[in-house]
Amino acid sequence: MTDNLNLPVVIYISKVGCPACVGFEKEWSEIKRQLSGKARTVKFVCDSNLYPPPCIGKYAGWFPSLICAGPKSYYRIYTPTDQVNQRDYSPDYELKAKKFNAVEEFDRTTKQTKFTFAGRPNSAQNFVAWFSRLNVADFDESTPPSSYANYF
């Protein structure tokens, strides 16, 4: 395994046919370029029959959505080749991440976290600036997944 599993994982959640997602592709390419060596980048594409996995679902309230996941959390769900981590995966597990361009609030009625769009432009420049201020240790798991414990 040659991947650096300690890097944060930037996830782009898009939807087939979404005009905003089509317009965002140039920004996504620039984000990947600027974060090369600083983060791993992954893209999930949804359509009417394919939804985000349950562990990521809460972050996909609108498209495009960008999140930064802690690596220990991400690899608890996925392998370095983005397949399901059969050893550590649980359908009840929720990815530990921060959502870009969103305000996170706790809804006391539903007892769930919800996101409200913050209204800033979804640009590579804004995302990279936001990413550079994150401290992934603040929201990642404290222990690595058992499948990759030796890589952290």
Biggest sheet, spatial arrangement of strands: 2-1-3-4
Beta-strand portion reads 15-25%
The average pLDDT is: 92
Supply the CATH architecture.
3-Layer(aba) Sandwich
In angstroms, what is the radius of gyration? Answer: 15 Å
Helix/strand/pairing class, anyone?
A: alpha+beta
Distance between the termini: 13 Å
The helix count comes to 3
Please report the total strand number as a whole number.
6
Q: What is the highest CATH level, the class?
A: Alpha Beta
Domain unit count? 1
Specify the helix fraction band: 10-25%
Report the sheet with the most strands, covering strand number, pairing sense and barrel closure. Answer: 4 strands, mixed
CATH fold call: Glutaredoxin
Categorize the overall geometry: globular
Model regions low in confidence, pLDDT < 50 over at least 5 residues: none
Order of helices and strands: EHEEHEEEH
